[in-house]
Amino acid sequence: MIDVLLFGSVGFFFLLLFLLGFSLFYISPVSLSDNWFIRFFLYLGTGLGFFVFLIILFDVLHIPLDYKFFFVVSLFCPLHFIVFHWNSFISSLKNIFVFSLYSKKELLCFGVVFIAASLLFYTFLIGAFAYPYLEDDDPWEHAVAVKYIADEKTYYQASGESISHYLEPYPPSYDAILALVYQINGSVFLTLKVFNVLLITLGILFFFVFALDLFGLEIATVSTLVLIALPSWMSHFIWSHTLALVLFFPALTLAVRGFSDQRYIIPAIILIAAEMVTHPFVAVLFGIFFISVLVWHLSFVFFSATDKKEVFFRMNSFTRAFLIGFFGVALSFLYWGQQLVRHGLQSILYSHTGGFGGVAQVGAAQTAIEQYINPAYTISDFLFAPIITKIDQPTGFGVLAFVLSLCAVVFLLFHWKKYVVQEKYHLVVLLWFVLTFIGLLGGHLPVSILTHRFWAYVSIPLALLIAVFVVALFEKIRSRTVALTFTLVLFFGIFGIPFFEEFNVYTSWYPKYVVETSQWPPGVAWSSVQELEGYMWMHEHLAGSRVLSLCKEEKFLIGFDIETGFPSVEMNDFRTNLAEKTVDEIVEKSQSYDYLSLEYSCVKKNYLTEEGLNMLANNLASQFSVLFTNDEIVVYAVS
């Protein structure tokens, strides 16, 4: 049954994004002239950003965050189009599968990109299910946030981080989206694993559309393949960076289109606003990317204008870019203003840093977390992608990929005049690469900010630069034999050769595949493997039942699809003072639950002594029947 509901929620997710994307373009109004392959992913990407914006708008207006309300809203514009533009609707349907409208090159490139994206989806999906639990620590917190939003139909929490760190004032967009599909399929565990991978895969296709707008079909295809292979580009780790990075490309795509076509201004503003409320660090980096393009347009408009003062007062590509950026940020204060009123500036800042801002200074004593976030990378870190790496942000590019990127930098610098004259974005991408690479070198600089997070962002311009260089080389090759040989060298050098592991460790894709399909740890909060096994047993046998844990936080039960109460100060105090509680008090506390669990974590957290834990376990066994037990956990049936 859960499989049917899961597939249903996936279908609903795609349908909702498509309808919302269509609606935003319809309102603008923008009549997309792209072919249906590109148009489909433009609808999905735009719909995802519009979805985030509506989540914030609904909560501000106190409209319940229920998937049914979003679906109803998504139907208004499509129904209006069908009723009042019936002939156009029928014509659009007829053209969807008319492959004669595509050139052979388009069909080939679209097919290659789709197959490569499917390979990424499959790899990440089998990696996500390589272990029967959620990885590390962040996903368990996201599980609570998803469950809370789905049940309470709001992301509001009265006392800051009492329920989850990933509810307000931290941007809750990622968890809210997952909560709405969870309302359909009923499994937090599957929703987190499946939809996180699904979003990452959509991000690759959104990148393809973005690169296509900037540089054309060939460069878009090559850069997408490179980005898929790069170990430094996203892992299947479950966190809010996923949504932020995925929205990066639709927002930039619409913004760039809006610079030259004012019909795209409204969709671009809404998507930038959505990007600003997904993740604070990504929002800052998006701003750097956006401002680089804005300055690029300003330079051309300013130097070509006869009256310099008029540049800032007449509608042109620069003023459109400025308006898009300004109103996008302003619209995001629909959320940030709400949070300032509810929680204040200090709570907002703390929710993003947890007391650590990610900023480190050279020469100052660094804590373990500072060394983890702001390492000093060397040349070998860029050349080689390790198969034992950070699961939230893998490192390394691969030998050939890094060498090609350096060649691309030299190539663009050598031909910079051509790109300036043609007003192309090549030098903007080069600037993106320089700025993000400097961020990656932060460990060697006087001040560094979240150095290890820059890997994903430097991968974007790096993939584009490699594609620009490779396509330029292919244009100079006249021999088919040489072209084929060059293609094979590039493919095997980046993706590897089957069964040649000694060679493949120097490539990009092989280390990525090994890391992404390996078994990741469940986090530091588990006292032992046996305790985790007890929770996996409950996941298999008690999913959907209400369980009270006497020693562990609610997020671990919720992450395994087990019903329980939401975190509260009262329950935290109960656990902390468990040694002072009588058996009768524990029995009374468990009356609204179906099952009760007692874990060795109580000893690890100093709630109980080992003697006290054993005594309590025996006393509870006289009150309830024991369903499961090992050295670290006992599960009792309350009724």
Question: Your description of this structure?
Answer:
- The structure is a single chain.
- The chain is mainly α.
- It contains 28 helices and six strands.
- It has helices at 2-27, 36-60, 67-84, 86-96, 104-128, 138-152, 173-185, 188-215, 217-229, 241-260, 265-276, 280-304, 317-353, 368-373, 379-383, 399-414, 416-421, 426-440, 454-476, 480-495, 501-504, 509-516, 529-541, 554-558, 569-576, 583-589, 601-604, 610-621; strands at 359-361, 447-449, 547-549, 595-599, 625-629, 633-637.
- The strands form two sheets. A four-stranded mixed beta sheet has the order 3-4-6-5, with helices on both faces. The protein has a two-stranded antiparallel sheet with strand order 1-2.
- Helix 12 packs antiparallel against helix 13.
- The longest helix has 37 residues, at 317-353.
- It is globular and about 85 Å long.
What is this entry, summarized?
This protein is mainly α. It contains 28 helices and 6 strands.
Note poorly predicted spans.
none
What proportion of the residues form beta strands (DSSP E)? Answer: under 5%
How large is the count of helical segments?
A: 28
Q: Separation of termini?
A: 26 Å
Shape: globular
Count of extended strands: 6
Mind summarizing the main beta sheet? 4 strands, mixed
